Amino acid sequence: MSKGKLFVLSGASGVGKSTVLKGVMDARDDLLFSVSATTRDPREGEVEGISYYFVTKEAFEEMIRQDAFVEYDAHMKNYYGTPKSQLEEKLSRGNVILDIEPNGAFQVRKNRPDACLIFIAPPSREELERRLRGRGDTPEDQIRVRLERAQWEMDMSEKYDHVVINEQVQTCVDEILKIIAQVAD
């Protein structure tokens, strides 16, 4: 049986989720991160089992057939998903946060209605585009696809329990910490 609370963090590519998530995790030592599996290639600095579980498309599809995910989705030509066994193990030890996109968040909501869904929004579409271009690691065609997807993701934010605008990272972190404290403490 789970003893921890489940939090889902979502936001468009380039909104600063990773930076905000790091700030939240650094501030609360009782919060565990649930590592997702993905078929995409690792980015520089990402570590197997810490950033993601990097698996082949074939292995991921076998896990789908075995109903091994709490949620999964395909986007940007790759699969992403949260392994059930890993999530349950972490929830047995405490509060857990997932970093997933809206389709996955809604699957979690369906399977775990007690989960708290938090959406991180950019201050504007223009700022989101500036951040995506500023990364320097995304080809132009992918930037266009990500911006199109971002519009849909921002439209879905109304289905979340909380929407936090990431205009300034520490302010965004602080707002999410308040939400977590209200739900978990």
Question: Can you characterise this structure?
Answer:
The two termini are 19 Å apart. A hairpin with a 2-residue loop joins strand 5 and strand 6 (78-83). Strands 2-7-1-8-9 form a five-stranded parallel sheet, sandwiched between helices. The protein has a four-stranded mixed sheet with strand order 4-3-6-5. The protein contains seven helices and nine strands, in the order E-H-E-E-E-H-E-E-H-E-H-E-H-H-E-H. The longest helix is centred in the last third of the chain and has 17 residues, at 140-156. It has 185 residues and is α/β, with parallel strands linked by helices. Helix 1 (17-27) crosses helix 7 and helix 5 (125-135) runs antiparallel to helix 6. It is globular and about 40 Å long.
In short:
Helices cover 44% and strands 22% of the residues. The chain is an alpha/beta fold and 185 residues long. The longest helix is centred in the C-terminal third of the chain and has 17 residues, at 140-156.
Instruction: Tell me the radius of gyration.
Output: 16 Å
- Average pLDDT: 91
- Separation of termini? 19 Å
Q: Give the proportion of residues in helices.
A: 40-55%
Main sheet, how many strands, which sense, barrel? Answer: 5 strands, parallel
Biggest sheet strand order reads 2-7-1-8-9
Query: Counting H and I runs of at least 4 residues, what is the number of helices?
Result: 7
The general outline is: globular
Question: What proportion strand?
Answer: 15-25%
Name the structural class. alpha/beta
Count of beta strands:
9
Which segments are poorly predicted (pLDDT under 50) over 5 or more consecutive residues? Answer: none
Order of helices and strands: EHEEEHEEHEHEHHEH
